[in-house]
Amino acid sequence: MITPLDLKLFRDLGRMKGQIVAVSLVMACGLAMMIMTRSILLTLESTRDAYYQRYRLADVFASLKRAPLSVAERIGEIQGVAAVEARVVVDATLDLEGMTEPASAHLVSLPEGRTQTLNRVFLRQGRMPLADERQQAVVSESFALANKLQIGDSVVAIINGHRDTIIVCGIGLSPEFVFEARPGQTLPDNKRYGVFWMNYQAIAVPYNLDGAFNDICVDLSPGALAGPVMTEMDRLLLDYGAQGAYTRREHNSAQRLDDELRVVRALSVAYPVVFLSVAAFMVNAVLARLVRLQREQIAQLKALGYSSWQVGRHYLNYAFIIVVIGTLTGGLVGRWMGGGLLSIYDLFFRFPALKFRMDYSALGVALMVSTGACLLGIFSVVWMAVKLPPAEAMRPEPPADFKPSMLERLGLTRGSGPAARMALRNIERRPMQSLFTVFGLALATGLMVLPGSMADSVDYMLTYQWNDVQRQDVVVFFSEPGSGDALHNLEQLPGVQVAEPVRVVQSRIRYGHHSRKIAVTGLPRDADLNRLLDAQRRRIVLPEEGIVMSAQLGKILDARIGDVVQVEALEGQRATLGVPIRGFIEDFAGISAFMDLEALHRLMQEGDTVSGAYLAVDEARWGEFMRTVKDTPRMAVTLVKKDQLEAFRSTTGQSIGILRKLYLVLAIIVAFGVVYNSARIALSERSRDLATLRVIGFSQREIAGVLLGELMLLIGTALPVGLLFGRGLAILIIEKVRTETVRLPLQISLFTYTMAVVVVVLASCASFLVVSRMLKKLDMVGVLKARD
């Protein structure tokens, strides 16, 4: 049954529809972000868990040089081990048609005579290789799509120095390679790196591993602990060149996906809080204005017998309407945005099916959160309406103090016109309302800074990483570490101008109870092609004794400069040495550690061994250089800097660009909504004053100047506050999305600040144009009548 109060509610909402829509849209933006991120989080987590379980991703992994298959049987007898998959895993060079640079194939053997037990392949197309087929392979879907490979196509591979042809019999994917990238790389390069699953004999025989394995995966029994199993595995594999067992959490693909989930989880909280704070302010401002204008109506309602509870509930219903509209709109928009943004994750991660799954519980959370925000915003307003005695409410509000403003008394407004002085006096007469308006505008301005800062950070990272740090053209790694002669051979390649040796040793670094398995890189002290820079972009010279590491690794180990860490080599003699930390480098991808090349040789108790080299190549001989590299069997991995840059732009750069556009649209909505709401409230409260000015001779432009002047003063105050808030927000968000694998530097350019100011000012102008049309409808006849 519709009551008189309900009818009054509907009439008021009709008159206030513009403000109700503005507040609801701002609230919907925050709720849409919350629902979108929580739904994406649910989608990724549920898809990951189902994929890992159905296709049995292993719990523990280990790589080694060579061990007989009988050792795998002994590992299967370890208490707590449920299943074992021993295999051969090697990298081969691919000579793809139409591509100058060599690509890499990560060859993974399939068990003979049975299906896979662990890390099973999901077939998208085609079939698995038949028994005794030596040239057939299932190719990873990402690589096949990037290179437009179809069933029956063939590629040329250099397998242990011999050119061979691999025929594509299937296209698939595996839970082991959800994130498909070279070990240690934080970005996929699907055009130049792919996984090939082939029969055991097809890989083992060319690499002299028949009857042996060099990689093993283990599935744990329910409730079994990984630590004791890995300890026993390391003991059994110690004599076979093992590099130490590690868990799924340290696996490159699983770790990268887990880091992404942590980022989404952080964004699902941080960003909606800002929008809902703005919405709470706007609800307070709208309803406070309504209560002030309806003092007489409140008195009449109470005089007619309505209780304070009924009056209070009536004004709570305004907020409830806003909450319902905002939640429903936010839910629909969040679902739409989530389904659209899910495609971003296809740039990085591969699942058999990634279908958007709406987190309906997020709707309930959104309803509670939005209701809480509104209640916080209107509590004082409703309390004011409830406690207003009828006799007092029948009287108009006491007239405002029309004395000169403080700036006028200080003599700082000399030469200003009447409009400016009226604007200053009105701001001073209503300090809390002015403060709330400045606060809302500051939040809108700050929201504009964040998307720009993300783009600035990416641009800075590109310049820093690929110009200041990585100055080489190519990085080449051998299939096996070689002597100084190997470096000399690299120097003789066509077009090579500079070759700087590099030695990479898989190690475990410990400090206190913290540890990380990481590749320690040895460089010459005067290395210039891969420079080490600190947070101030100052060059770090490698010390004769000591280690230099990523600042992020220092945080993980909870270590500082001067602390001595234990570096345990996981190859060779497996020596352990206490090494002091001599410096921290600033990097933005993964974690790394560097030592002087000779010091690393001493740790390994070896001669002038190198794993590869950083090369500067003459551009004029680039094609000749690449053809020679393709035909050199010892070169297992070739990383071309410009290709890495292209891969970055096609993945991270593209995804951040999409997010930037999304945040920009949301920020514009907030800016317009806040400014429109502020101008509309000012017009409602001062309509009689403005109409009076028209009656006494002020022009339409002059009274618009009074309203605009007040608004511009508030905007001018809010802009610097908003820019500071935007910087703080950028610091918070960028800090939240920092992970072990990927980090963004904090950079905010003058252009970003300028754009934030321009957008807010333009939104203000657009809002004022809408409000100014209402100025023409002022009731000038009504002001001639005396107030009751």
Average per-residue pLDDT, rounded, comes to 82
Provide the helix percentage: 40-55%
- Which descriptor suits the 3D outline? elongated
Measured distance between first and last alpha carbons:
34 Å
What order do the strands of the largest sheet run in, or round the barrel if closed?
3-4-9-6-8-7
Number-wise, the strands total 20
Percentage beta strand: 15-25%
Structural class: alpha+beta
- Number of alpha- plus pi-helical segments: 21
Radius of gyration from the alpha-carbon trace, in angstroms: 34 Å
Question: What about the largest sheet?
Answer: 6 strands, mixed, barrel
Task: Summarize the SSE layout with pairings.
Elements: H1 4-15, H2 17-54, E1 60-68, H3 69-76, E2 81-87, E3 89-95, E4 103-110, E5 122-126, E6 136-140, H4 141-146, E7 154-159, E8 162-173, E9 193-199, H5 200-204, E10 212-220, H6 226-237, E11 246-247, H7 252-293, H8 295-303, H9 308-341, H10 360-387, H11 390-393, H12 406-409, H13 418-429, H14 431-469, E12 474-482, H15 484-491, E13 496-511, E14 514-523, E15 547-550, H16 551-557, E16 564-569, E17 576-585, E18 593-596, H17 597-604, E19 610-617, H18 622-630, E20 635-640, H19 641-695, H20 700-736, H21 750-775
Parallel strand pairs: 4-9, 6-8, 14-18, 15-17
Antiparallel strand pairs: 1-10, 1-11, 2-10, 3-4, 3-7, 5-8, 6-9, 7-8, 12-19, 12-20, 13-14, 13-16, 13-19, 15-18, 16-17
Helix pairs in contact: 1-9, 2-7, 2-9, 2-10, 2-19, 7-10, 7-14, 7-19, 9-10, 13-20, 14-19, 14-20, 14-21, 19-20, 19-21, 20-21
